Amino acid sequence: MMTYTEISRNKFQSIFLIFIFLLVIIALGYVFSRAYNAPGLLLIAVAFSSVSALVSYFFSDRITLAMSHAVPVDRQSNPDLYRLVENLTIAAGLPVPRIYIIDDTAMNAFATGRDPKHAVICYTSGILQRMSKTELEGVTAHELSHVGNYDIRFMTLVVVLVGIITLLGDWLLRMSIFGGRSRDRDNSNQIFVIAGFVLAILSPIIALLIQLAVSRKREYLADASGALLTRYPEGLASALEKLQKDEEPLEEANKATAHLYIVNPLKGQGSAVGWFASLFNTHPPIEDRIKRLREMNL
After folding, report:
1. 186 vs 230: CA distance, rounded Å
2. Rounded to whole angstroms, how far apart are CA atoms 85 and 119?
3. Which residues of 205-240 are buried (b: 16+ CB within 10 A; e: fewer)?
4. Which of 9, 28, 129, 270 is the most buried (most CB within 10 A)?
5. Coil, helix or strand for 9?
6. Mean pLDDT estimate for the chain
7. For the segment 5-23, what is each residue's pLDDT rounded down to a tens digit?
8. pLDDT tens column, 148-162
9. pTM, whole model, 2 decimals?
10. Cβ density class 27-47: b for 16+ within 10 Å, e for less
């Protein structure tokens, strides 16, 4: 069951997010252009960011699937899985997404794409082999909730823009260390150099924290929406228990795609403890997610 409030909020937040990240990119370009008396740096930063964002936005699903070495399946090649997904998408009022499988015995799944018409749900072979039907329905409903609530678009934008800021910040940081030793630099320029250096260091960190915080919040919402879709919270709760016990990391996953999965595919990597360290976790605690599901009254 998709909530129109969340869909509208995600669409608005997507626009707002683009605006904020463009401001950060423009600020980086402006500060470094002033620091090195090179107005062209601002134009280069904006042009690079705009082109990268457009390419990544329209092809992010293909890039993610290629990175994951996923292969497509259809009604003929896997009729049981196709029917399961199709039945739930009919109940959710969504188009049937493309279905892919990663040949890996680790258990996991994710959704990606820029909107419901271009959505993809990807499963590992391990989760298909070791989950019961009701558990797999819970996982699928969770991923369809990401699709229906437009989380996939929002998270795609977050990933793309965080990546752009990280690349841009790294490039400008290297330039400030190795490239800018102008003899005629005055005090005002020195201030911009220092400001640019600090901004280049902090921008990727702040952008990453935003990405991870948003990702954790979306997982809670998708759990609740998925349980409402199946009317059986225990199915997803039981699936999460199995996923929690699975200690095998997913070989095809990496830090760039980890937040997309229903649980952290890197397992021991990136599962920090403590208040500050937990800010860098890609997912909320599974115990808390299971507890919330079992407290739902449907």
Report:
1. 66
2. 12
3. eebbebbbebbbebbebbbbbbbbbbebbbbbbbbb
4. 28
5. helix
6. 80
7. 655 666 676 677 667 777 7
8. 988 887 777 776 677
9. 0.78
10. bbbbbbbbbbebeebbebbbe
Active site residue 6: no
* Secondary structure (DSSP) of 112-176: E-SSGGG-EEEEEHHHHHHS-HHHHHHHHHHHHHHHHTTHHHHHHHHHHHHHHHHHHHHHHHHHH
Model pLDDT, residue 277:
47
Burial class (CB in 10 A: 0-12, 13-18, 19+), 83: exposed
From the candidates 6, 135, 137, 143, which is the catalytic residue? 143
CA distances to 37, 86, 116, 215, 260 from 14, rounded to whole Å, are 34, 28, 15, 14, 17
Listed in order, strand segments (DSSP E) in the chain are: 71-73, 98-102, 109-112, 120-124
- How many other β-carbons are positioned within 10 Å of the β-carbon of residue 66? 10
Sheet holding 120-124, edge to edge: 71-73, 98-102, 120-124, 109-112
Task: Specify the residue for token string 């976790």.
Answer: 281
Half-sphere exposure of 286 (CA within 13 A, CB side): 18
pLDDT at 193: 65
Higher pLDDT, 18 or 272: 18
Structure tokens given for 219: 């997982």
How open is the CA angle 174-178-180, to the nearest 5 degrees?
Answer: 105
Tell me how far apart the alpha carbons of residues 253 and 17 are, in angstroms, rounded to a whole number.
25
Which of 203, 2, 174, 211 is closest to 93 using CA atoms? 2
Angle at 271 between CA 268 and CA 275, to 5 degrees: 155
Average pLDDT over residues 174-201: 62
Q: What is the DSSP letter of 18?
A: H
